[in-house]
Amino acid sequence: MWGNIIGVNFNIALEALWANRMRSLLTALGIFIGVAAVIAALTLTQGAGASINARFSRFGPTTITVRNGAANTRGAFGAGGTVQSLTPADASAIRQQVAHVAYISPVVSTSEQVIYGGQNLNTSVQGVSPDYQTIQDWTLTEGLWFSTTDQTAGKPVAILGQTVVLNLFPTGTDPINQTIRIGNQLFRVIGVLQAKGSGSSSSADDVIYIPYTTALDRLKSSPYVDQILVAADDPNNVNQVQQDLTTLLEQRHHRSFLDARLMSSHGGRLADMPPACRAQALRVPGGKKAARRPEPRAAHVLIGAWPDCALLKVLRHTLEAG
Q1: SS3 of 101, please?
Q2: Is there a smaller number of Cβ atoms within 10 Å at the N or the C end of the chain?
């Protein structure tokens, strides 16, 4: 009985569909397009999300970037001012005195012409420490990352990104143990990085990594590093590490910090002073001009302008001590 009823209803449905076959086709097509559009939108959204997450994960949720420059509320803060002041000694002090630091790497950045045989290109050269590989999650396709011994000795060894390999060795020559020229210095290739792909403005693979000690000595001839990457041992400890870093660097760079704020040659530094100090300094003959001059005597003008300003008291003490 029930079978007969189902069969009859099925036949009626088929007859109705056939009688309105164009309308039925359009309805089915609309359903198909709608479902396909939803699937495509979800796929694109998930893909874009994965790409963004991959880019941010290069720094990791536990990474703090210490730069020469002004404070930044997005996880990077400066050692004070816009002058070069960070040194490898700062990185050593952070490792020794700041708790919950798992990895740390000074970073020395430069751009150099690189030559191998008849091939050459201009690329980014980064001087880093062995910890940098872990902080940035780099994988090697062949060879090794340089060691602490290589870093201490300042050895001329290099690790190449895939873009550099393709440009310098287009015929497929194995880069390992080949000698390349970076600037006017010879380096031995000891490793090749796995490709990471392009970032927002440049390729992450268009890079060469060398020990930061080698970069300071052979390429930049400078005692200063451009930044320090610090990785906390746990995401929950990042805020504490950042606070401790701030305190330590303010102690180590106290004079440089004040000099950069009050004796900058860029001008406009009066805005960094407390309102009362600023108002009094502007009233003193030569005070406005002095605020834009980098010489210590200019700072003394400001000190005389408002001796009760606590910030200027500290500056006066550091100037007299120096």
Answers
A1: strand
A2: N
